[in-house]
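Q: What would this complex look like in 3D?
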Amino acid sequence: MVSPSERRIQSASTPLPRSLRGIIPPMVTPLLDYDKLDAAGLERLIEHLLRGGVHGLFILGTTGEGPSLSYRLRRELIERTCRQVNGRVPVLVGITDTAFVESAQVAGLAAQAGAAAVVLAPPYYFAPSQAELLEYVEHLVRQLPLPLFLYNQPSQTKVLLEIETVRRAAELPGVVGLKDSSANMIYFHRLVSLFQDRPDFTLLVGPEELLAEAVLLGGHGGVSGGANLHPRLYVQLYEAAWGRDLDRVAALHRQVLQLSSGLYSLGGPGAGVSKGLKCALSILGICADSMAEPFQRLDPSQRTRVEQQLRALGLLSG
Amino acid sequence: MVSPSERRIQSASTPLPRSLRGIIPPMVTPLLDYDKLDAAGLERLIEHLLRGGVHGLFILGTTGEGPSLSYRLRRELIERTCRQVNGRVPVLVGITDTAFVESAQVAGLAAQAGAAAVVLAPPYYFAPSQAELLEYVEHLVRQLPLPLFLYNQPSQTKVLLEIETVRRAAELPGVVGLKDSSANMIYFHRLVSLFQDRPDFTLLVGPEELLAEAVLLGGHGGVSGGANLHPRLYVQLYEAAWGRDLDRVAALHRQVLQLSSGLYSLGGPGAGVSKGLKCALSILGICADSMAEPFQRLDPSQRTRVEQQLRALGLLSG
Amino acid sequence: MVSPSERRIQSASTPLPRSLRGIIPPMVTPLLDYDKLDAAGLERLIEHLLRGGVHGLFILGTTGEGPSLSYRLRRELIERTCRQVNGRVPVLVGITDTAFVESAQVAGLAAQAGAAAVVLAPPYYFAPSQAELLEYVEHLVRQLPLPLFLYNQPSQTKVLLEIETVRRAAELPGVVGLKDSSANMIYFHRLVSLFQDRPDFTLLVGPEELLAEAVLLGGHGGVSGGANLHPRLYVQLYEAAWGRDLDRVAALHRQVLQLSSGLYSLGGPGAGVSKGLKCALSILGICADSMAEPFQRLDPSQRTRVEQQLRALGLLSG
Amino acid sequence: MVSPSERRIQSASTPLPRSLRGIIPPMVTPLLDYDKLDAAGLERLIEHLLRGGVHGLFILGTTGEGPSLSYRLRRELIERTCRQVNGRVPVLVGITDTAFVESAQVAGLAAQAGAAAVVLAPPYYFAPSQAELLEYVEHLVRQLPLPLFLYNQPSQTKVLLEIETVRRAAELPGVVGLKDSSANMIYFHRLVSLFQDRPDFTLLVGPEELLAEAVLLGGHGGVSGGANLHPRLYVQLYEAAWGRDLDRVAALHRQVLQLSSGLYSLGGPGAGVSKGLKCALSILGICADSMAEPFQRLDPSQRTRVEQQLRALGLLSG
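A: Here is my prediction, written as structure tokens for the whole assembly.
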């Protein structure tokens, strides 16, 4: 465990802004094999994202195949990412786990490496009650050396973070925001309404197809998978929505829909988003497309279709 | 990784019988705190179980809160359990994980400690397709130093091991059986039917309320949670069903229903079975009742009700 | 509404036995077209079933496509069935509906035609709470001219009849039993245990693959879809289980598994049981195989496979 | 069945506009008792809605408790509603049913009464495949005397109308739009994108909390439950979104959230929306608050809370 004074020092290199806003891509994890990081690809990917203007990076999330990676590889990824980013934007690190101790340990590694915050979805083998979930967050927060974002991801974890649970968890020290991947905008709007007097509590939407409306109606940004591939598109959509330029929002929103509908369904429901993104990134020469078990890269015929999509999106010439 | 020749040596101390049969309790993990093993309680619990005549032990399963435990504690539990059992019955070790590498590593520890087999449910954060699941098992089996039991646990993993997937996985070297916790007896009967000419493939039922019919209609035994508390009851029920003594089956089956309906619902759906069993075991002086996060022990009023249940079951006098 | 004195007279021709036991097939509805009854086929089917020794008939259930039929056709089916049966066995009539008034009206038709009882699953568009469900049954029972069987069918109705709800509903006048199609034998065993001192409350199991264990462990019979095709097989299995002849149970149980696994999966999950049964019955010359909307009969290649199944089961020569 | 030429005549009194736009409230069904229409309340409610500027009425939907009403009452409601509206706005009539014939018959009644269109969700006892669903719509459309809106309502019907199914159904003659109550805005946006070149195909969103974004991003209006109570609020929100007045949208959207979060959760998940709306309407003296079985009106303490909500919304003075 880390003392409060140490905490400030460790994360000094990339402090979390008082109110995080914008596009924080859930970075895919470039792999040469199921347990071998593509270190060169990782560097290129990070530079690609920062050039695109993203406002932060989120590693070890769902799109990053976090739970599928060995702890050794998670550590390597955290360290290399923080070193490469080098304070240019805040790095958020997923610590979701079924084991409390392992969540705390990954958070410790994140703090040592200079990450800005950690991100936690409910433990996901057993389904806790809301009371158990709140108590869990209370216990864990005491051991965390970094600020915490809650992560609502019911399709993977089987448990919804209910509004009342979020309200109470948000009162704990160090709980600074929430990423909602439920795709339920009624839920998201209720959170925006609940936290309208707390601009320091950051509300980010997961599915990129919902980024436009989330920001138009009071949300603070998005953890958009497609920003791995085309960061500027998502940054521009965020800025257009923030600036209330509805014509521009409509045009960029359509591009996002085109990208997501063309790319994510090829690889099946389990990890189709990551498979599609990695395939596209490898076509563009940015990083390798190996997947962590239990998944495999797209096959050659699917890869051809991804190439067609990239041409249609103007991301590949010829 | 371990070479084939090493495999035999490592597991020599507690070889898996050619055809495992009987009651293999899913052992609760005695804890003094969420990350502190109750080592003395563990010894007493193991002796309690072996005195009750059980045919094996299964550690790090659902009832054992496996996914909630730190890897350090999992290792300690494996080593202490194998040492205490010392070859008297086979020890099966749960290796279910979201990360392929961690499953393989726990399997390695199990082999070194002298366990007889490992048990694997599908990786449970992402939901793989049946084809992906089969490929996953194929890849993992190559790295396993011990025989493998499949584990069908759809309510926790979100994925059913479909009959055809089991059929094909059972053809892989080292895949020796399946534990079914789906509570779907149509599924279980279809498996019995499918494997009727393969007596070496062991079919075990999870829910203890289904033990009677599973054995009466061709299954080989049960991984019965209640056997933690009252091992002899479950061994007797197994023997009565195996011996087709229907009067005795009916009487013992009723006792099992009484135990499970009285004990498991107090602690809520998430981990009510483990909470009830640990509370009862602590009342009987066998081991402590701490739970791993995100769960907590039953409260005093619930404990009083467990005492009443133990009296009604004849397990507590006074 | 019907006065209490009328009730007795109307159902006098086919009284419900004090304790219904045995095989009560959920009769398929023979159709020439989606809204045209196959009247001659219906007569042949009823005689086929009665020759097979069944202990009752259940019409307008799930297998009978009850909710898909027009009320005009439901009335015709009730009248023709009761007339043809003519008191030889009790006829049970499904009255499950989303509209309270329509349930009561079909019950009235059933009583006038001489049916013995009605069968009610929860209303299935809105999902009521357990308290609302109990109140609904209380209100409806007051208007019913015939005894009532509850029907637990959560996969279609989205609502489980919880044990406590059944316990309280069973205290209402006229509620005489329950058919459980949940395929959850833990639930069924708990009901058997709850009603062990009330032999007048009949507990029937839906899925035929669970008939053997249901009767071996205290249930009273089955509403077995396959009995439409091969009534004697199910009657024999029921009798073997009732008589505790385990060798015979095992052999007949295997035949039931063979029939159900071969026949019901061809037509998809929605109405595969009815499609398979109707196809087989039409091959045997018993009745037509038209389905009610939104379903269609099996296609010629599937029909060929059904013929093969019938040969394998010894029901078709050549 | 009705010939094409008759169709035009029958619906002449309230023709469907070429492209329906705006707020079409899913009207609650005012009841004096579970099977007794509140005819005077119905008149007052319709005038209340039309005074509020709504662009159409949708009767016999989910909020209208359609499936819970007797067919006699459905007919009475259709006739009285069409007579009272008298061509001032188009009336849409829900014909969702488990029985094909009953859907067609209610559609016939709607046409005779002068309704403008009918609305159909998938049949909801059995879960058809997408192919079966499409075939069902094809068969039914041939018998319909009025244009058809599809209705995606997976939480009640268990079946999603997949995008491809909608695409193909929209090519059938007479299929003119879709109401989406899935609360899944990714799905809705994909439909908007799919039909961007077909302005005659009307896309309406169900949940009122999603009205703002649905219209901002290309949808055509909403079937908003709260418009029963406060029609002008929803009409104004629709107009603000249509006119791209984002400040006004934000303010009105917040009012909608306040109304829905305060009013709909009191009565439980099954029919809480209808219970809350009817209670509020009865407090305002517009209509009675009886519910159709299996539901009951809110109790006095809940009614007091509804009164408080109405005061907070400025709909009740004092």
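A: To summarize the key features: The first helix of chain B runs from residue 4 to 10. Chain B has a mean pLDDT of 94.
Q: Very helpful, thank you.
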